[in-house]
Design a protein that fits this description.
- Three copies of one chain form a homotrimer.
- By secondary structure, the first copy, chain A, is mainly alpha-helical.
- Chain A is built from four helices and no strands.
- In chain A, helix 2 packs parallel to helix 4.
- Chain A starts with 8 loop residues before the first helix and ends in a 5-residue tail after the last helix.
- Chains in contact: A-B, A-C, B-C.
- Chains A and B meet through helix 1 and helix 2 of A and helix 2 and helix 4 of B.
- Chains A, B, C: GO terms for molecular function: glutathione transferase activity.
- Chains A, B, C: It is a multi-pass membrane protein.
- Chains A, B, C: It is found in: Endoplasmic reticulum membrane; Mitochondrion outer membrane.
Chain lengths: 151, 151, 151
């Protein structure tokens, strides 16, 4: 049977979870803009964004907050994008639906918690544990993909 | 019918547009190097790149220009990579070719404009509007993918 | 024949190489943490990570080392993720297995060398040449994908 097909129930479950984490990743752009305009202080990342009367060379509260959101966004790129690509390859190896669903769910839930812990600056090791859960899922999918792989 | 097949006309249109935006994203690396060596001033991002007689701790014109290109590159990673992955999943849901082509075209054109606006520091809101068009396409594909998705 | 299927020998070779480079990319997160805790000095990227007695506004040896690993990680995102996506599309165009295997191998080997050259700060142009090899493979796959593409 074709793997990337709506007739494949594992692919439908993959669709749901990958879309959720990609939506969350895309939302980080919106949160960046919201935090940028919602924070007090100077805003001088790009010259063309700077309005009149803006002094330079002083890192404002707004920039510090935005940098936190951006690091969180970058962490998503480092983890969510590999998850979606690995998940697609993993679906093509024909896993049973129960183990695939568990893997996709643990990853999705852990990444939502990771974002909450990061954005609200919850003390460690909460964020690290959320990262670790998602990371472990990626490694376990890599292991499953390696079995039918050739070199 | 198989979705990721040259027999699928929607997939062929997806191929063309995703290759264009991925090519543009890859080109950012070349532009980074070109701006780096084309700009005057000190170049000290990496110790192993620094030649003799280079003073440290002073941000040069070259580095400022390079950082602009790098932010543009990062913005591509944040938007183009999700587009290509979402587009692949969207093609698998079997959209009609007219609405798929319109989505792919709007995204591709908006990202080329986004890069031009960013690199030449055209005053806002030009760049923001170009970003918004691409972002809206990604969200609309997420919505279409969610319909056949399971959890 | 279906392209993303274990019956397709080109897809199996793609699986092996893409999993290797994605595994290496995921490992960068672990290396970041290892370098962070293995280096002397102050560690103040995030407020919630800072312990007691940590002074601010002074870039420590630990942070400098971590930033090198992070730039290497970002370079992977810029090159490995496009490779895996382009590779998947390239496999769908039905290349013969010899030329596909050579492309995947050159890319994989060049990226492992790139990481070694970057992390151990081997003098240029070693890292640049490793980057160039991977970049050339991506461009050559873009060229092959463009042939059957529509717009």
């Amino acid at each position: 049977m074709e793997s990337m097909s709506l007739d494949n129930p594992v692919f439908r479950v993959f669709l749901g979870h990958s879309v959720l984490v990609l939506f969350k990743t895309c939302l980080m752009s919106v949160i960046t803009v919201a935090v940028y305009y919602g924070s007090p202080g100077e805003k001088t990342i790009n010259k063309d964004d700077a309005g009149k009367g803006v002094r330079k060379n002083k890192k404002s509260e707004a920039l510090a907050n935005v940098e936190r959101v951006r690091r969180c966004h970058l962490n998503d790129l480092e983890n969510v994008i590999p998850f979606v690509i690995l998940g697609l390859l993993y679906v093509a190896t024909g896993p049973d639906i129960e183990s695939a669903t568990i893997r996709f769910r643990i990853f999705t839930i852990s990444r939502f918690f990771h974002t909450i812990f990061y954005l609200f600056a919850i003390p460690q090791p909460t964020r690290f544990l959320a990262f670790l859960a998602g990371f472990a899922i990626n490694i376990s999918m890599i292991y499953r993909i390696l079995i039918p792989a050739n070199f």
